[in-house]
């Protein structure tokens, strides 16, 4: 175990932070949608898998795009593009709405899972697929936003 930890410390991954977080985030996002598409193919009837539950994943995807289209320097007001209609206040409202959409879709997937599948003694696998999809997209969003470093962009 000590040799493994020495190997990890010797890799010098600080310069590869953006690459690693992008790969992990993209993999989680793709895996989440793969699980949802697989569930839709395996359970084609609306009684088995609510087709409206795919809206949670779509909203989470839009939230991912919204949240990661803004840099942290724009959010702090350090950007040179802080004047006009897209000023710091607009950016903060934009990020707040993106976080609401992201958390809301995750909470909605929990609600759908427990209300429609668990409490009514249905086959819970399709609901679990939607829940896992949204958890993966949420994790992908957070890793992609906070796992990257803007210092390495310069």
From TrEMBL:
GO terms for cellular component: membrane. Keywords: Membrane, Transmembrane, Transmembrane helix. The keyword Isomerase does not apply. It is a multi-pass membrane protein. The keyword Cytoplasm does not apply. InterPro entries: UPF0220. It comes from the Eukaryota. It is found in: Membrane. The chain crosses the membrane at residues 20-43, 49-70, 91-112, 124-144. Pfam families: UPF0220. Belongs to the UPF0220 family. This is Transmembrane 50A.
């Amino acid at each position: 175990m000590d040799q493994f930890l020495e190997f990890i410390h010797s890799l010098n991954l600080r310069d590869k932070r953006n690459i690693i977080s992008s790969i992990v985030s993209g993999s989680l996002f793709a895996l989440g949608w793969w699980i949802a598409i697989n569930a839709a193919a395996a359970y084609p009837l609306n009684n088995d898998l609510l087709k409206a539950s795919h809206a949670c994943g779509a909203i989470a995807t839009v939230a991912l795009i919204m949240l990661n289209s803004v840099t942290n320097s724009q959010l702090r007001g350090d950007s040179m593009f802080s004047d006009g209609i897209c000023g710091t206040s607009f950016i903060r409202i934009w990020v707040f709405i993106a976080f609401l959409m992201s958390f809301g879709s995750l909470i909605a997937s929990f609600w759908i899972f427990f209300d429609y599948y668990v409490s009514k003694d249905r086959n819970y696998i399709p609901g679990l697929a939607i829940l896992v999809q949204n958890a993966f997209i949420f994790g992908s969003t957070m890793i992609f936003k906070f796992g990257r470093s803007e210092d390495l962009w310069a």
